[in-house]
Amino acid sequence: MPIRKATESDIQSLTNMFTKMYQLNSEFDPMLQVVDDLGVKVEKMVKEALADKNSFIYVYEEEGEIWGAVKIKLVDRVFYVPQIVAQIEEFYVHPAKRRSTIGRQLIEYAESDLRKIGIKVLMARFPSKNIIATSFYTKNGFREVHNEYGKLI
User: Fold this and answer.
1) Segments of the chain assigned E as strands
2) Computed from CA positions of residues 81, 82, 87, 93, in that sequence, does the dihedral angle turn out positive or negative?
3) CA 144 to CA 26: how far, in whole Å?
4) Please, what is the end-to-end C-alpha distance for the chain in angstroms?
5) What pTM value is reported for the model?
């Protein structure tokens, strides 16, 4: 399987992909406008995640090219059981490969890896108006758990 944990050699590819993801997210809602130095901040986040034992980045690579990636962080839900869950925070598949099975494969690989450390719940966080993401996650067994509302003040 062409999926593996990300390494420092993947930082530039991951930065490019997740930067595109945030730029796409900004098209869904005016409350999601990106900062001017987005690429710099995304690169910093990727580097920190690679060094964090509670973060996991998996990449789908074919013939030396990274076509997709998912970044997952362990989250402490103090008031709920199970208390520690995994949450997808960044997810990107190259547009040329979006109708393939790369996204599903990344999810399945992550689930398998997370089960090995006792994680029983995988959540996903994405813009509420992103119907493509809603469809993808629903097709892959996810369901709506809670909503987050915002208001410009």
Assistant:
1) 3-5, 55-62, 65-76, 84-93, 122-124
2) negative
3) 22
4) 48
5) 0.93
Q: Where does 8-143 show beta strands of DSSP type E?
A: 55-62, 65-76, 84-93, 122-124
Task: Name residue 133's amino acid.
Answer: A
**Which CATH homologous superfamily contains domain 3-139?**
Gcn5-related N-acetyltransferase (GNAT) (3.40.630.30)
Token readout for 82 is 């199970």
What's the gap between Cα 2 and its chain centre?
18
15 φ/ψ angles, rounded to the nearest 5 degrees: -60, -45
Q: What are phi and psi of 152, to 5 degrees?
A: -75, 135
Q: Cα(147)–Cα(153) distance, rounded to whole angstroms?
A: 19
Place of tokens 């990344």: 106
Which DSSP category does 61 fall into? Answer: E
Q: How many CB atoms lie within 10 A of CB 48?
A: 10
Domain boundaries, the chain: 3-139
Using one digit for the tens of pLDDT, what is the confidence trace for 40-84?
A: 999 999 999 999 999 999 999 999 999 999 999 999 999 999 999
The confidence band for 152, taking pLDDT boundaries of 50, 70 and 90, is: confident
